[in-house]
Amino acid sequence: MFYKTFGYLFIYLIFFICNTLSQQEISSNEQPLIEVFLVPHSHCDVGWIKTVEQYYTEEVILILNNVVDALTNDKKKKFNWAEIIYFERWWNEQNETTQNQVKQLISNKQLYFVGGGWVQNDEAITDYQAVINQMTLGHQFLFKEFGIKPEIGWQIDPFGPSTLTPSLFSQMNFKYHIINRIDERIKYIFNATEMDIPGSGIMTTEREFEFLWYPSSNNPNVSIFTHVLDHHYGSPSLTIVDYEIPSLTYTSGFDFEGDPKVNPPVTIINLLFRADLLVKIIKQRVDLFRHNNLLLPFGGDFRFQDSKIEFDNMDKLIKYINSNEQTYGVNIKYATVDEYFEKVMQDSNSNNKNNNNKNNNNNNNNNNNNNNNNNNNNNNNNNNNNNNNNNNNNNNNNINNNNNNNKLKVSMEFPKLSNLDYFDYTKCSYDDYKRYKTCSMYYSGFFSSYSELKQISRRSDSLLRVGEFLYSFANSLSNNDENDYFNFTSQLKDIYGTLVQHRNVSGILTHHDAITGTATKKVRENYISMLDQVQSNTRNHVIPNIVGFLLANKSINLDYSCNNTIIMNSQVGDIFSIAFTNSLGWDRSEYVEIQVPPSTIVTVYNYELTSIQSQIIERFDKNGESYLYFQVQTPSLGISTYFIIITSTTTKKTTTTGDDDYNVFGDDQLLIYLLENGILSKPILSEISEISELTPPPLISISPQVTIGNSMFNLNFNYLKENYNLLTLTSFDDLIENEYSIPITQNYIEYTSNQDNPYIFKPGGLPVGLKPESSKFYKITGSLVQMVTILYTSNCSQSYIVYNNNNSSTNNSLGIINNEQYFQIDNIVAAGWNKEIGSQFKTSINNYKTFYTSNGLELTERNYKSQFGDTEEFNMIAGNYYPVINTIQILDGNNNRNKKMKKSNIFKKQLTLLTKQSFGASSQNDGELNLLFIRRSNDSFVTLDEKMNDISNPLIRIRVLFGNSNSIEKIRTPHSLLLENPLLPVYSKVSNIPVNKWVSMYNTIFKPFSTSFPYNLHLLTFTKQHFTPDPSKDYFIRFLNIYEVSQSDSFSQPIEFLISNYFNRFNITNIKESSLTFNSIKNNSTDSVILNPLNLISLIITIDKN
What we know:
By secondary structure, this protein is α+β, with helices and mostly antiparallel strands. The chain contains 25 helices and 53 strands.
């Protein structure tokens, strides 16, 4: 106890002496006044350690109640709020008096909203449509209730900033953007003897905590002024590190709701010392910027539950420091974030600081030669090598912000960041450095943590999209005269309420501790429970009812269901209708997969009652369950109905003639009558697939080749001795280019965990092939679908699936999307303790370890490299895994896909993998792609105090495009959307009604648009919002040109179209162009639209039902 007390006294003396010696600096009148914008805030996670409900009821209510009281009692006090999900709920629970108080605080600019989204979304693995939707939820509430239009991004806790966020925020009319979690070696200088990282701290040495971010090469004029928090988002503090005696490391700060030993309350006795310490912190931190203004966060996680203790203590310091302005040279005030940026912009146009003088006072950190080294490979984690100086962050040009959305002019010298993001976020600790002489906390683990949660979330978003479109169609058509007798309008209000709940939960899952899998077990389970509930409601109450209404002719079929249980309980002679909804703007012709009872033979009829080919496959990777495959055609954003008849025969014949036609239907006289009278065409029985269980040869034998394929390619498999004698994909035959035996292999890999956790990926070494247990192999063939299934273990398998176009039923008006262009891999995975399972592709592609990952909208170039000279094997692995939203690919022969030569044999090969869920991926060697699917670790992470015990067994589906690069670039983006937005079936039993009468009562097709959209045009949104000016008539729509610049000669082109040409079934009376979240009108009347590559337009259309 004596030594501890003595240590604190000694540290106090050090502070006192340092402050005394620095009085000349503090009291110098030569230094310009430092303006400190103290930003009170509370970071309120939407689930993390506690559930959303627990956080709200136990903490958020206290925060908002007490903050409103504090601000009401003192007009000098201000507060900044971000998470609208909490604020909206709290607002709706308040009485009129409190609501009026809040409105006055907003009017006084005491209460300010930053970001304004439903949550602070994750940026690594959240799909862009989900991001847009959750921001729209928050922005619409703020606009409806207060007329507020947020202008400042506030992404202070996501684990790495993506280029997607500034791209989207600029379209929301944001002027400024605040980020935080980037590689600590970029922010901070590590040059102590005990922890020396050469090249660290470029943001400190170059004062680059503020810059103009140009996030997209596809939209080079779009930028946003970005501020990086220099010392996290908590209240100010200062730490004195003692490397030799860590117990003497001392932190003192101003988090007055925290530990009082570290954050002592301000008293008469310690007022001078505490004021000096705060000024010292201020002067250190303001020196990191190119002006004399400092944004100083005051708050933290769920702070201001006791707003009085926070404000009362800080009031004393503000009063004392401001009353001694001549001594300290500092002025502090409570502020909203916009006040800070307004002052920076004002200063940037008038009183610019002299950068040379500024550099001379840079905390003497520039004494370290490494700090001025422009050969750093750390800048933004994106240089190709240590000598590459192409990041533009060191170029201090006079830059004007040309973003047409916000009209901001910047004349101060700020650095410029172009086309680069800040993945992977990395933290450094002294303990790690002592052990490894480097940082070892790469936040690339959460890209893949709790894979099933990520999958359910994306599936839920796809379902919500279908529900939104169907509701908008039904609502816009429900009051037409010819539909009045259906009396469906009364149901739409309840249906809308269900969709609102689904939107809210979808928004919650974008939170940076939700979809990431970085919350506690009880919180993850709560997220999944919420997802299951809203999906069930949408499946049971929204989609079946609306499909029934839209297909209604003389009556509404109320028996539709999204559950195919009725088919699984079927009997011979049963007839089922399946209505498939297409949520994309293109006519589609693609295969569907429907589970059927075992040993069942069916006949499939299309919406014209013409029998079509089908095939039944026994899936050995799904416990021997039987699935029916057939090709479905659906119109643009429409619905098509197909019929399945359970027949009475078990023959394998696929066609029938003569008397056999009637035998198909057994004793069902009605079906025989319909067939005899030409109402039904001749039935084509479903084909029963041929199954071959394959046995590997002895190790000394030559491996026989197993091949499946279609008219465009073959997949060739061999038993590989070096891969546990597993049947393995070994080569690809390109039948279009007449190239054969092109090398490509794929198999499962396994990493061993080394103290991994949901956030951090720290493998114990290089991956090895997953060792099988009692492996089995099956080849399944048929005229429509071919399959090779490899069973590794009882819960680990892979199935390679190849589709053959059924020309008799193909009528794809696009003529470009083709089922034969890809092969599919269904991966069913599970992980044991301290194991992490992934997939590895190896090819002969010479990509020089350059690969491309998608942020959902566009690809980002990645280059395998060491970070800050860190060559530790596990860090080279983890530090080169990046997030994948839907696409990862490698190209042949060059590391720049936009400079591909168009000659026939140059840049020919490309491997593109498309996914419908997020995970981490990398190219660790030339010609290689690695995907990380599932993780499990026995290590208890200190923050969560739980093991990463993922015992799920998800099916992860990959669509593979391999071959000619130009051909793949032409089709990869539509294929990605098709994979992410599958056709949605609803089922109904056709009972007690002849099929021909059923068809006369119910339409078999719903076609809302007269023509399919252009191949590069995507209708991203068609939704109804009760917050719009005329809730009965206004709809929100968004169009997107899905192709990137230079992606395809054919489709990377501007699209010009009239909206009324597509919405010609709807009586559109007005079209207004708006911001991305529909809170600002940009153009009051527009019908003609021109969209350049990867441009997006948001419109409010008014539809008159009369």
